[in-house]
Every structure is written in structure tokens, then in C-alpha cells.
């Protein structure tokens, strides 16, 4: 047993954990990061948002990220299954979006940059260490973990930051992790070469292809490598009666836009599968415990919010831990305010995500109108802007009123699936 009482134990070395550890070490706190894998390692979620830049600058990695050679992401493009209609959301054209671009990153490289930065700043990192249990008392947190050799260790700290991603270790152990009903999805994804993607000005754009009850992402990681993923409802997945690889191939072949793009594509490595990944927690903070990143709740990945929210919560969660330790408190008003802010930020994205799966939303989203700068307000949210001024918020309210109205009156021409909806096609008609 290690008798030294640390300030903070961070469980998980991904973007949230690495960001938190960097901030804690910078503030002079003793911090131990326990990561179950060895970096670099494969991870999904390669598309960043423009407002990641402020956090990169805050933790001192902006120059390294900028010079790493990652693909520059200037826009997000959305297509129906047969290619039309099609919309390009360009960050630089958003009237309320200051940061004009982001990056598409191979997470194996990106995550290692963040974790090594935490080490350089003074955090102690132990990889290959799987946390077995945790206990929280009035005086301290006790964590037991097992290393690669099978040896069991115990360490103690004043605070615990859970950055275990979708596992949400502490949330699962406490029984407060709940799958978000209505969003039971299956994701099948991998890296490919030979995918047909745009060149020139649009070379780094993320592409999303919309089908009935499913959608695909296409994220260019380099001139040769593209991340391609399918998100599909559990009901449609089960109805196809195939293994994940078979479902992926069948939907590629039945979606004209994907079939065209993937004609000469070859899989690099293997396809990966995750299910029922959208969840929420009853609480994000409790005495001596702060949950950050995906461990605080995970959303549908359609708008690439994962890394941005992970790093933002890692930053704010660490700041809360520092303040609590300095004040010799176990639960503070700042921690509760962090929980409220995080729920509000996630709620903004959830409003888009839940509407994304309705045709009336797709109608307006894929046929944007510059009226009242509504598209610029959407741009600000989807760029990851953390503070939304009133001039953005009222425009979002108007947009979602129009989405609701579209169900009853065609504000824009209605997009309807063809009778052969399994083919991913559709026709556009005004009614």
C-alpha cells in the first residue's frame, strides 16, 4: 500500500484525463494518471471542432498540434443518400464563429500528444493499469488497480477524477449510468484507403451521409486514409440479420453516395463495433469525485462534439478540484456549477441530435436560408462555441420553431424517402 496521500488520481488518459492532469500539475498539485492501455492506441472520434483551439492554447499544446500535420477541417458537409440535397457548413462564414477551422486527427497520435504533455507538465502517468475498485471516505479516496504483470496496488488521494470514457467506471459502479432511451444505436467503423474524397479547398471536410434510420461519417485523416463509420438504429440493424461487417457492406452498396465513394476502398485493419453508447448520469459530481469527458455522459457523435466537450470538462473539472483542495472542501458550489454548465452545454448539442433524426429538421438543415443569419447561429453551436450570446440564442429558438412548423406547413420543400427507402435514396417534393 502506498501511504503517500496524493492530491488527485485521474482514471483514464484520454483527452479529458490528459487535459485535467495537465491543469492539475500546472497548479502544483500531485496527480497520478492511471490508464488501462498503452499509448499510442486506436480510438474513434477523429473530428475536432474549431473551439478546441482555446483549450490547446490553455494547456500549452497548440504549437505541437498545429505542426503535427493533421488535416485542416474548414467545414462539415451533409448529403442525403443519393447525394442531393447537399449542404456545406463552412466555419469561416459563420457570423458568430471566431475560429475558422479545426483538425481531423488520428486519435492514436493526437491522444498521445496530450498525455505526454501532461507528463512534461509534472503529472505521473502509469499505463497498463486497470482500476479494480474505488472507495470514498470523509478523509480520502482509495483506488485499487492492477498492472500488466498482474500485481495489485493501492493508492490514495484527496480527489478522484473519473475520465474513463464511455465505461464511466464510477457511474456504472454507483448505478447512476443510464442508456438514453430513443438513442439505442450500433456504430460500425474503421479506417480505409482508396475512398473518393474532395480535393482542394474542401479536402479536409468531414462528410455525413443521411439515410433513413442511419447515417455514415467520412473523416479524411490524410490524403490516403479515411475514417468511415456507420451509425444505425438497433431495430434496423437487427432487421438486416447480418453480422456487423455484412450490415456495413450492405448499406454502403445500397446508398448511392457511399457506393460511389467506396468503389475502390480497402479496409485498413479491422472494423470496430460499439452499441448503446449514448447515456446520461444522475450526477456528475459528489464529495471528492468529479466526472469529466465521456464519463460524465456520452452523446451521439453526429456533430463531432466528443473531444471538445471532453477537453472542456477536463479543464473545468480540474479547476474545480484545485479550488476544492485549496479550500479543504470535498464538495463545493463551483463543482455544482460545473455540473450545471456541462449539462447545459450537452443539452445544446442534444437538441440538434434529437432533431437530426426527424425529416422536418433535415428539410431545413440541408436547405439552409440566410434569412436572419439562422445558419450562422447553427454554425456557432456546431463549431463548439462554449458561450452563446443572446444574438445566437434567439436565432436558435427561431430555427427550432421553423423545424416544428415544417411538420405542418412546408417552410422549405419537403424531403421524403422513396418507397425503396432501404436504398438510402429520397425524392424532394413540396407539399
Low-confidence stretches: 419-431
Helix content: 25-40%
The tally of structural domains comes to: 3
Distance between the termini: 71 Å
Overall description:
- The structure is a single chain.
- By secondary structure, this protein is an alpha+beta fold.
- The protein has 3 domains: 5-70 and 105-179 and 279-347, FAD/NAD(P)-binding domain (3-Layer(bba) Sandwich), CATH 3.50.50.60; 185-275, D-Amino Acid Oxidase, Chain A, domain 2 (2-Layer Sandwich); 355-429, no CATH class.
- It is 34% helix and 27% strand.
- It is built from 13 helices and 21 strands.
- Strands 1, 2, 7, 8, 9, 10, 18 and 19 form an 8-stranded mixed sheet that branches.
- α1 (15-26) runs parallel beside α4, α9 (306-326) packs antiparallel against α10 and α11 crosses α13.
- The longest helix is centred in the C-terminal third of the chain and has 24 residues, at 333-356.
- Residues 419-431 have low confidence and may be disordered.
